Amino acid sequence: MTTHLQREIERLKRKVLAESAIVEDSLREAFVALERRDAAPAMRVIEGDVEVDEIEVDIEEDCLKILALYQPVASDLRFLVAVIKINHRLERLGDLAVSVAKRTLALVEHPSVQVPLDFFEMAEKSRAMISRALDSLVKRDTTLAKLVLVADDEVDAMYKKVQEELKDAIRERPDSLDALVEVFAVARYLERIGDHATNIAEDVIYMNEGEIARHKAGVFEFDQPSEASGASVRGEESA
């Protein structure tokens, strides 16, 4: 039974990694669409969401089947619990990529507006958090996961600053209200993306160490890793 269980777990790992790659690509394309105000990549993100939904259901069914047939314990059980959580978070990230894409399509219909200086930096930091969180999953690297937890505070601070600047812009330029409201919504999505990256990192820590890392971000303040250790295994820069 142990051999069969390990074979099923390895197959499940491959599915989760495939799902994470698709979701990361969707987020990257959604951010490109937003920065360029380009409808074409935004439409590709929206149309591709069904694939993520199908994979999520497939992975959840696999997890339930493994739990029922093999009744895993210890690290195997911990892995399955983490995968169930991560699977759901990846699906939600796919939904957020779609939300960013839809807001981008709405922005294309409005005259261009000036956005806060921190807005696109916040988008890049959120993308880097997702990339690093998924790298920590692929590599089962707790150090990378803990760095994601530390970075979440930076994104939260930037979100508050962007909020205040957008409120001022709305008061000063009421004629641009519709476009600024769309930007406001995207900023919220970016903050939520950072939150989901943090959740995935917490799940990786639990998977590897059995430690519940929620509410403990403050204890993980240490030096950033070298560029080589922080780079994405998919060949993209993660910071």
Describe the structure.
- By secondary structure, the chain is mainly alpha-helical.
- The chain has a single domain, classed as Methane Monooxygenase Hydroxylase, Chain G, domain 1 (Up-down Bundle).
- The protein has 7 helices and no strands.
- The protein has helices at residues 2-36, 39-70, 74-108, 118-139, 142-172, 177-209, 227-230.
- Helix 1 runs antiparallel to helix 2 (39-70), helix 3 (74-108) runs antiparallel to helix 6 and helix 5 packs antiparallel against helix 6.
- The longest helix is centred in the N-terminal third of the chain and has 35 residues, at 2-36.
Helix and strand arrangement:
Layout: H1 2-36, H2 39-70, H3 74-108, H4 118-139, H5 142-172, H6 177-209, H7 227-230
Helix pairs in contact: 1-2, 1-3, 1-4, 2-3, 3-6, 4-5, 4-6, 5-6
* CATH homologous superfamily title: Phosphate transport system protein phou homolog 2, domain 2
Looking at the structure, the CATH topology is: Methane Monooxygenase Hydroxylase, Chain G, domain 1
The number of E-state strands comes to 0
Strand content: under 5%
What are the low-pLDDT stretches, counting only 5+ consecutive residues below 50?
219-239
CATH class: Mainly Alpha
Structural class: mainly alpha
CATH architecture group name: Up-down Bundle
Shape: elongated
SSE ordering: HHHHHHH
* N-C termini distance: 42 Å
Radius of gyration: 19 Å
Mean pLDDT across every amino acid position: 86
Number of helices: 7
Let me know the largest β-sheet.
none
Helix content: over 70%
